[in-house]
Amino acid sequence: MYSSGLRAFHAVAEAGSFTRAAADAGLSQPTLSSQVRLLEARSEAPLFDRRARGVTLTPLGRRLHDITTRLFAAEDEARALLEGAKTLRRGHLRVAADSATHVMPLLSALKRRHPGLTFSLSIDNSTNVLQHLIDYGAEIGITARQTSDPRFVARLIKRDRLVLFLPATDPLAQRAAVPMAALTGRDLVIRETGSITREVFETRLAEAGVTPGMLVEVQSREAVREAVAAGFGIGIVFDSELAADPAFATLTVTDADLDVAEYLTFLEARRRLPLVRAFLDLVETGTQP
Questions:
Q1: Contact between 35 and 26 (Cβ < 8 Å)
Q2: What's the fold here for domain 159-260?
Q3: Model pTM score
Q4: Secondary structure letter of residue 288 according to DSSP
């Protein structure tokens, strides 16, 4: 009874407008609008705030969108199984990761195994990577944040460490390694709150009793590099992410544990999804470059 209305609602919620949703669904806009209005009439409450340039979800609409996201994700999984996608001749895998450096070799290896697959990759901080999985916005997460939440399955992929880098012209660049105390009063360029890079490094600073200068917060690792190059401070990144560049010098910290692990993470409820099983098999069999 509600099936067509729910599907129409979900299409509009995803597209942000009735016009785009109708085009995506191959329906006329009046048909789509009628289905949504019938759903609203049954609930006796609006699901969208309608505006000239699109629509936004009402509080009830947001709650319903959470449900329809899970509903149609489960339907897609069932269809994939029934249509034989478990052979992985085709399919689209959505991956959220806190570092392209850590995930691209895995995607490359999976693509060689299953040439018919396509991928989409979003890069975000570790906290948001887990949220993408919860929201069914991605099937696979690659993150340094280990969680004890029973909804998740996590498998170790690799170990890395945080390092410092700064312009080669900085006097501190003459040293290959420094203690934490060398950062006293120095400006630092660091990722936003929610990133493991920031969480680990700020914890180690506090443990060492070191007070840096200004913290310059940026939203991506590429922005960290640009900010360091522009002279905003000393950058903190994963060792594997720092390509050789004569313009920069790399420093290790001698008296703090800056090791960080990267994990493959997914929802336990989605373990049976063929694409998730294939990715998990890649990690567990060690078939990586």
A1: no
A2: D-Maltodextrin-Binding Protein; domain 2 (3.40.190)
A3: 0.67
A4: -
* Contact (CB, 8 A) for 261 and 144: yes
Whole-angstrom distance, CA of residue 21 vs CA of residue 52: 15
**What was the pLDDT predicted at 249?**
94
Domain 85-157+261-284: homologous superfamily in CATH: Periplasmic binding protein-like II (3.40.190.10)
- pLDDT average, residue stretch 209-233: 92
pLDDT tens column, 181-200: 999 999 999 988 888 889 99
Please give the share of the chain, as a percent, with pLDDT higher than 90.
45
Residue with tokens 């669904």: 25
Residue 128 and residue 136 in contact, taking contact as beta carbons nearer than 8 Å: no
The candidate with the shortest Cα–Cα distance to 142, out of 279, 47, 41, 273, is 279
3-69 is classed CATH 1.10.10.10? yes
Instruction: Write down the pLDDT at residue 241.
Output: 84
